[in-house]
Amino acid sequence: MPSTICATQSVDCRFSLVNHSKQLSGLKYLHIKLDPNQIALYIKLSIITESSITMILSPKIENFVLHCGEMGSRWGFNRTIGQMVGLLVINEKPLTANEIAEALKISRGNVSMGIKELQSWQLVKVHHIPGDRKEYYSPNGSIWDLANKVFEERRKREIDPTLTLLRDQILNNANSAEEKYAQEQMQSIHDLLETVTKWSAELQRLSPEQLQSLMKLGSSVGKVIDLKDKLLRK
C-alpha cells in the first residue's frame, strides 16, 4: 500500500477489515480508488488469511488438553495426537488445521500428520462449508463412540496379532517337556484373550444407555454369580 497519496494520479489502497464478532469465512478488503475528479468506494471479498484469527485456550481447557497429551501414550497415541483429541473433544465447533496448530503451538505439518493418524483410528471427521475451501475437523461421534473406536483399533493392532501368534505356536507339536508346558501356558493366555475379545465385542453392541446401566450394577453382578455357584454345588 502506498505511503503517500498524490492528488494528480489514481491510487489503489487496500485496507483489511477484520470482524471479530463472528467466525470469518473470507478476508474483507476495503478497496478505495482515489481520483482527482471522483472517488469510487467498493468492497471486495476474497479468501481469508487465518492469521487474523487468534485461538486462545482458557486455563481450564488448556489443563485438560495438556493432560490428554500426557495420557496419549496410554491410549496408543503420542503426546501431540493426544492433545489434538482433547482439543477437538472440548470444543463445540469444528476447528481448522490452522486453529489446531495455533492452539497447541505446533506446526501445520504436525497437525496434518496428526489428522491422518486420527483418521486411521476413525476418531475425526471432516466438515466442508459452502464457499470455503478450508477443512474443519471434529470428533467422530460421542465420547462413548470414541472410546469404542479406540478399543476396537487397539484390539486389531495388539490383541489380534497376539492371538494369531499363540494359535500358530499351540498347533505345533511339542518336542520336549519344556515346550509342552510352554504350550499349556500359551493356551491359557490365548483362552483369556479370546474370552476378553468376545466379551468386549458384546459390550460394543450395547447402546451407551445400556452400557451405563450394566456398569451401575457393579458388585451386584458378582453377587449373582456367587449365588449361582452356591446353587450349583448343592
From TrEMBL:
Keyword annotations of the record: DNA-binding, Transcription, Transcription regulation
Entry's Gene Ontology molecular function annotations: DNA binding; DNA-binding transcription factor activity
Domain annotation HTH marR-type: ranges: 87-134
Entries under InterPro entries matching the protein: ArsR-like_HTH (IPR011991), HTH-GbsR_regulator (IPR052362), HTH_MarR-typ (IPR000835), WH-like_DNA-bd_sf (IPR036388), WH_DNA-bd_sf (IPR036390)
Pfam families given in the database record: MarR_2
SUPFAM superfamilies tied to this protein: Winged helix' DNA-binding domain (SSF46785)
Domain of life: Bacteria
UniProt xrefs under PANTHER family: HTH-TYPE TRANSCRIPTIONAL REGULATOR MJ1563-RELATED (PTHR38465:SF1)
Protein's name according to its UniProt entry: ArsR family transcriptional regulator
Upper taxonomic lineage: Bacteria, Pseudomonadati, Pseudomonadota, Gammaproteobacteria, Alteromonadales
